[in-house]
Automatic annotation (TrEMBL), chain A:
A GO molecular-function annotation: CoA-transferase activity
Source lineage: Bacteria, Pseudomonadati, Pseudomonadota, Alphaproteobacteria, Hyphomicrobiales
InterPro entries reported for this sequence: CoA_trans_fam_I (IPR004165), NagB/RpiA_transferase-like (IPR037171)
Natural source organism: Pseudovibrio denitrificans
One Pfam short name: CoA_trans
Source superkingdom: Bacteria
Name assigned to this protein: Glutaconate CoA-transferase subunit B
Keywords in alphabetical order: Transferase
UniProtKB/TrEMBL annotation, chain B:
UniProt GO MF annotations: CoA-transferase activity
InterPro entries: CoA_trans_fam_I, NagB/RpiA_transferase-like
Protein's organism: Pseudovibrio denitrificans
Name of the protein in question: Glutaconate CoA-transferase subunit A
The keyword NADP is assigned to this record: no
Keyword Nucleus: no
Domain of life: Bacteria
Record keywords: Transferase
Amino acid sequence: MTEQDFTPDEMMAIAASRALSNTDVCFVGIGPPSAACNIARLTHAPDITLIYESGTIGTAPDVLPLSIGDGELCDTALTTVSVTEMFRYWLQGGKITVGFLGAAQIDRFANINTTVVGDYDNPTVRLPGGGGAPEIASSSQEIYITMKQSKRGFVEKLDFFTSFGHGEGGDHRARMGITTKGPTLLITDLAIWKPDPVTKELTVVSLHPGTTKERVQQTVSWAVRFSDDLQETPAPTEEELSVLRALKARTAAAHAGNRVGTA
Amino acid sequence: MAEFLSLKDAVKKYLKSGDMAAFEGFTHLIPHAAAHEVIRHGIDELTIVRMTPDLIYDQLIGMGLVKKMIFSYAGNPGVGLLRRVRDSIENGWPRSIEIEEHSHAALANAYEAGAAGLPCAVFRGYLGTELQRVNPNIRSVICPFTGEELAAVPSIRPDVAFIHALKADRKGNVLIEGIVGVQKEAVLAATYSIVTVEEVVDELDTHMNACILPHWTVSAICKVPGGAHPSYAQGYYGRDNKTYIDWDPIAADREKFQAWMEEHVLKQGPDVFAGRIKGLEVTS
């Protein structure tokens, strides 16, 4: 890999931000999705509607929230509704164009596990659980996922189905009675993936600059499919990088700046 | 009818061993002081319900007071996993707990059904997930009009709901602003409710569609300034993110955890919270 002036994490956040448009109504997951959504808002999609499950609609935080319900989200939102209303009217009601999720484990059909590693009743690692994701995955018009690649995360078989992607592939979603598109895009630190139109298996369509097919395969537990028309992801622009770095710097300062806690 | 009580007296009066208790607050207004009071009373065999168990449930579980937890996301927001919850589930320390795991949509709907006096909540959810395999309380009903299969979960009707709010007036009417979460639903669904507030004022001085709990829906009001710390209170003080980050290594070690609880919870009272928000106050 050649020397570059951006990190794989930065490339991931910026590539993910590019997928969002000005007219999207995006239900934002915490962590990497939140960074991507706010870079989009601060660059090419200033009018994007960002919604966090804490009930904040049309929020425009100056720093990335540490939690899904930071005061910053409410302070800058168009309106804040109850969590019940959020899930009933806005998500279940079909108002969300893109649900943007992260994941602990993903499989080749973009199903997600955020519940346990190992057996449910006797887990090796008890993860936080689904939170809003199971219904975000089925009620949003489509789903984008962003996460870093690793063999631990990109698994042959999920330990637990927390959120349904394309199931066993093909028309499994439709057979389950799910009418939304499901995962249409996966953005990692190495590549951009899209499901095959027919089989729904995730396929690498674009490699980030400096990444190789071998490197992608080394971090995935299944035999990776690459598109016949494999592209290279455009490198971050100076504007994208400066917006991202400024956002990260403001965020770090805000979260460290609060006085010493009692814990 | 709201009665103004000390937090100590309110907990003693309304919560008993074996009860189902909800401590609600979605990042904002988490009733930390109330949970610490329950820990000091040592009220045990509790079934605790909450959409987003974080530090206070880590603490209740780590102190061995919990029999069962009903939840949808158990994490230290932005930091990681809950170490005491994990130790209980993975290793049975200090005791094993039963868990009933849902999604946020399910629990939000279940609180609303509880507030609405319904036996269950019906919604479009759990499609293709595995949670219904491990949670027998996730079932389905067929819409009698369209034939669509919908998810159904039991409503939540806690014995006692604990929330922290911004302020109450002297009659005991309670105001919640900002991220309101499911607190209104939790209080209306519960048999009893204990509300800690930042202040008690002559007039709530609010607007006509504000989120208000009328005094006759609340059992006890306890003035505990800072009572949400390290969570925050909109317009009063900010979230103490560093305390959340600092919690992780404390909770990761059983002895450190016990020493911390002794020092910061068992030996303290609700008054200590006012000092914990120094430097975090909203000035504008």
